[in-house]
Amino acid sequence: MSNVDFLLPLLVAVPMLLSTVPIVLGLRFDRTGWSVAALTTTALVAATTALANAVYATGPVSHKLGGWNPAYGIELVLDEFSALIAVLVAVTAAGVLAYTRVGGPRGNTFYSGYLLLTGGLLGISVTGDVFNLFVFLEIVGLATYAMIASGDGPESAVAALKYLILGTVGASMYLIGVGLIFMATGTLNMGVLAEVLPAAVERDPTLVRAGFAFIFVGFSMKVAQWPLHTWQPDAYQHAPDGVTPVIAAVVSTAYAYAFGRLLYSVFGPEFLTSTPYLTELVVTVGCVSVVAGSVLAVIQTDVKRMFAFSSVSQFGLIVAAYGLVTESAFVGATIHLVGHAVIKAGLFAAAGVIAISYDARTVDEYAGLADEHPLVAGMMALLLISLIGIPPSAGFVGKWYIALGAVEAQLWPVAIVVLFSTLMTLAYSARLLEKMYFTPATPLEAPHAPESVATDGGEDGGDTETAAGADAANDGAAGTRGGTETAALDAITANGDRNTVSYGMLALVVAAALLAISLGFAGGFLAGLLDPSFITEVFN
Amino acid sequence: MPESILPLAAVLTSAVAVVLIVASYRRPNIREGWSVLAALTQFGIVLSMLPGVLDGTVYEWSLQRSLGVEFLAGIDFVLRADLLGLLFALLASFLWIFTSFYATGYMRGLDEHDQTRFFAAFAASLSSAVGIAFAGNLVTIFVFYELLSLVTYPLVAHDGDREARIAGRKYIAYTFFGGGVILLAGTVMVYWLTSQTGTATTAFESGGIGALAEGAATDPTAAQITFYLLITGFAVKAAVMPLHSWLADAMVAPTPVSGLLHAVAVVKSGAFGIARVILEVYGPETIRDLPLSVPGIGEVGLNVPLAILAAFTLTTASIIALRKDHLKRRLAYSTTAQLSYIVLGLSMLHPYAILGALFHIPAHAFAKLTLFFCAGSIHVETHTDYINDMAGIGKRMPLTMSAFTVGAAGMAGMPLIAGFVSKFYMLLGAGYVGGEYWLFAAALLLSGVLNIAYFWPVVYTAFFESEDRHDAKPLLEFPAGGIRQFAGDELATDGGKRDEETELNSDDDSGAGVDSEADYEYAVDRYPSDADVPGGPGGSPAEGDANSSVKTGPETAGTGHDHGHAVAHDDQHHGGPPAGGWTRHSPLTESTWLMLGPIVVIATGAVVLGVIPGHAAFLDLATEIVTSVFDANSLEQLRGPLSAALEVSTQ
Amino acid sequence: MIELELEILASHYAYSLLFVLLGIGLYMMIANENLVKKLIGVNLFQSAIFLFFIAMAYVDGRAPIIEGKSHSVGEIASPLPQVIVLTAIVVGIALTAVGLALIIRIYAEYGTLREDTLREVRADE
């Protein structure tokens, strides 16, 4: 079954090459970006599915780029762990396009960035080389910065710059770690590293440990673990509504996947458990992030910002699970990665829909939403319920395995944090649910909404002038800006029911909600994908 | 063990009804029709399993075996109708039939908003409750337990005003703390403990999970902690102190909810869960083999702390109930007390006590549902919520108040009503065990007296007083030493709420009546002379607790008194006799038959269970459960002390 | 001990200098209020890493030009670090370009490059 391995380099190369097409075509046609992106991502979904089928049927698929020896060449590998992430990335990328067709940034350059991002994310999932991973991390970073900056208003540029600086430092930290590991072993291939690292640890434990430390700090920054999470809320809040679902769903997920890959496929459980204080450190960072993220989420007023802090907390759970080094915890982390991605994609898409149609961005403005938009409110409720981890839902399955892992490792404080995270997630989710369903839209808020809209609109005007010439991507943004502006104006006159919400957006939200629920029944299935082959290989 | 779709069908019936109810939201008659139809179908399905289950058949449906989907690695999603499950499912689905009629009458009578959401959530609650009943392992029961918390939340917060929202918040915080945190922890621990010695499992086994008993032998401390985690998880819904205060607050919900859910389905799911844990997860024998060693006392059975807590709860809650003037809140505390009967009976471990406890599940359900239906009926017809306003109401609603009397007698455990039978068996069990267990028997008896003490005033007020002249209520409602008519200066010292002289009375009323927070005005404000109850805020420590936790909740502080709100609310709570006193009604015209019918049927049910318990299925079920747990041929074998009863099982 | 440290310093002085450069870059990035200088700090930081790779790959031998026949370990420098650094430089340039583009936009919007002023301007809105 090695005949599918030719698809592996294509997964990365095709979207990256095609990302130039919208720009080229953009010289003649205005709106080809979406079609190109849609075609590409659909093909990617098909390709990843085919690859995943092959992986789960016959085992890992690998491809040596240019036929070089993996010891110094680059190898692309798709195994049971990464196949899951690759499919997730492709499906999310294709799904979110349903949102951006009408709602999101529309310029051709935006779709160039979008395809670049997709290619980078797939690269992260399939690469088998630690330096190649760095390159893909940076490609994803670049695309993300550009896409965040395509948001409304100048705030998004500031947020993007903040992210750029911190993200670059994070990636650079990782690069230092890679350098140290390379010094110790002389190879960059993950598979080879896994073989030679134990010997290297014996020879010079400090070097390998220092390398691990840099890698850990770098990924804590990328995955947004407290206290290195500060870029994330700004980035998520100010990114265009069509971009946040992708970033929140798959960018952080891909980073967390890469971290897990390094921990388990490169360093290996033995190194993790034998190094003093290592697991304790990882677990502590994760647990602190769970608590800090939830607490900060509770006090937020902006809904997207609240979800961003929720991501900090949920990824804390995943990092903590990585640190537990038990089979159940690892399965839990993987499932939670997938589940959280689906949930967050849906939640951010729903928040975008609500922002467009109802002009509500803060928790208070969500009051009475259930009466106005029963469908979106209902789906958002379902997604929040999944996030809390009420069974049967994706959130519960991940939490079950992580909790089980914590108990198996007999790390009781971690088990307590994991279990209490339910209550902490409940604290901010219930706040939103209560606003949507049990708080009537009070007339008191009416004077506020138009006022804030007016100030926004004012800036937007100036923004459009300056930005339009500079960057073609902003044209698309300006277009949407005009859209939201008129929507806002309508909101003043006709109580905000301007129909800019497309069926595609609703379909995305509904699909995410249904998927989040149905994943709740797939706990055994997902565990089965990983369990016999991958887990045994890693843990024994 | 036959593969059967019936348990799933029972659960899905009301889940499908949810969809149909939402779909037909424009046509109320059809919508309520679905409710009734689903209730009848569900009851029919459950009933059809009764003969088989009594013969020892277990109907089981498993997700893995029927669809090939593995719920979690190593854990199946199983619905199985066994004896214990059928007891609860039969009860819930039977009572739902009448509640759906009653709810129709109630909601229409009050012209409530969001009725579709109400009926949909109600049907979903029943689905979850039956799911809890039929859950075949701890994970499945956890799934439905969480779903039940979730779908009952809209019912508690139904009113959508501030009070309801706060109650909803408290409700959801308590129930998810119990379910999502504690119960999940316990479930994970069971899975882990059983994996220590063999295949990991959480499936219920009559008499206890074998692998767990082995695991408990190797790691007794972890097993003890797990036991208390599971019990605490379920005890939250069973409102065992100190986790009870959500129940009284949840009474802001419409009365059918308070009746069926917060006296039967939800709270009983907690008690039912405890029954599952004691009888089918650990089993009496394992529990006996895991004594706690308490410094200074020596070895104490694992069950004893739970029994003490239950005994404490049933006494204290009864005392608190005495002081409640709001009828539904009084009933709520009565529920808290009665649920602890069940918990106490189960935790005494003796077969007879367990039999009594199991039979108390339906016995209390029938009696308490009658009481709640009466309270709701009174609310709909006269907008009266406070016992103080009910003087002479027996003239206005003779049938309702008669039913209330029957229910109250059942609560107190009077012979010929259902409550007597269960209490009788529990006393018998306590007696067989002897020793310190006499204390528990004493608590049961004392609580019976207290029951009379807090229900008799209601009956007395309704029938033997007239609206223009009625006495002070007996016992604790008034301070010893009589009524102080001149509230002004003396009150300043203890009440301390003197900033507004004119509102002084109302403040103190609410302090004694419901809640020391004077956020809303009650109807009693209009009749200050009727309810001149000087008493400081916070009648008892527990009540004080409840209040302070409400206050410290987020967003409650600082928002202050919402006046427009209070006015709107006042309208709703307008109560008490009309200007010319109650008009006399015949039993046939006092209310709509949509409400009267269910009241009569349920009250009759309570009597039937008391007079001929042997012919009403529930006692048979309970007996079968006990004999199968103890592996005995008949109940007679199990007489005598606990150790002897456990010996029977080992033969 | 001191001798050992001195020896390390003598033989590994390049690393020490590079980590000083790393620190300068990091400090500049954190402490400087000017956005452009922050970006220069990031660049310094990255350059230090590139140099670190170069220093690591240095051996007393030949340049990594492989002419078909095999060489023993240590005879020629490993080509991988050079490749890495080349790639990383490209990545770094791309990042700088994006960063500068963002800074231009920020300057156009707010008329300032200083972070403290920016904070004030944003707080006023």
TrEMBL record, chain A:
Domain NADH:quinone oxidoreductase/Mrp antiporter transmembrane: 128-425
MF terms (GO), sorted A to Z: NADH dehydrogenase (ubiquinone) activity
UniProt signal peptide: none
Origin superkingdom: Archaea
Subcellular location per the Swiss-Prot or TrEMBL entry: Cell membrane
UniProt biased composition (Low complexity): 464-481
InterPro entries linked: CPA3_Na-H_Antiporter_D, NADH_UbQ_OxRdtase, ND/Mrp_TM
UniProt membrane topology term: Multi-pass membrane protein
Sorted UniProt keywords: Cell membrane, Membrane, Transmembrane, Transmembrane helix, Ubiquinone
Example of a GO cellular component annotation carried by this entry: plasma membrane
Main location: membrane
Keyword Transmembrane listed: yes
Record carries keyword Signal: no
Residue intervals passing through the bilayer: 6-27, 34-56, 76-98, 110-127, 133-151, 163-186, 206-224, 245-264, 276-299, 306-325, 337-358, 379-403, 409-428, 506-530
Pfam family, one: Proton_antipo_M
UniProt name for this protein: NADH/ubiquinone/plastoquinone
Organism this protein belongs to: Natrialba asiatica (strain ATCC 700177 / DSM 12278 / JCM 9576 / FERM P-10747 / NBRC 102637 / 172P1)
UniProtKB/TrEMBL annotation, chain B:
Example of a GO cellular component annotation carried by this entry: plasma membrane
Comp. bias regions, Basic and acidic residues: 560-574
Protein name in UniProt: Monovalent cation/H+ antiporter subunit D
Location relative to the cell: Cell membrane
Residues passing through the membrane, by range: 6-25, 34-54, 83-106, 118-136, 171-193, 225-247, 259-282, 302-322, 331-355, 401-425, 437-463, 593-612
Source species: Natrialba asiatica (strain ATCC 700177 / DSM 12278 / JCM 9576 / FERM P-10747 / NBRC 102637 / 172P1)
Membrane topology summary: Multi-pass membrane protein
Organism lineage string: Archaea, Methanobacteriati, Methanobacteriota, Stenosarchaea group, Halobacteria
All residue ranges annotated as the NADH:quinone oxidoreductase/Mrp antiporter transmembrane domain in the record: 135-443
Biased composition (Acidic residues): 501-515
Region named Disordered: 492-515, 527-584
Any matching Pfam family: Proton_antipo_M
Gene Ontology molecular function: any one: oxidoreductase activity
Main location: membrane
Keywords recorded for this protein, A-Z: Cell membrane, Membrane, Oxidoreductase, Transmembrane, Transmembrane helix
Automatic annotation (TrEMBL), chain C:
Transmembrane segments: 12-30, 42-59, 79-104
Membrane listed as a keyword: yes
A Pfam family it matches: Oxidored_q2
Keyword Transmembrane: yes
UniProt keyword terms in alphabetical order: Membrane, Transmembrane, Transmembrane helix, Ubiquinone
Subcellular location: Membrane
Primary location recorded for the protein, binned into one broad class: membrane
Entry superkingdom: Archaea
Gene3D superfamilies: 1.10.287.3510
GO cellular component: membrane
Topological relation to the membrane, as annotated: Multi-pass membrane protein
Name the UniProt record assigns to this protein: NADH-ubiquinone oxidoreductase subunit 4L
Lineage: Archaea, Methanobacteriati, Methanobacteriota, Stenosarchaea group, Halobacteria
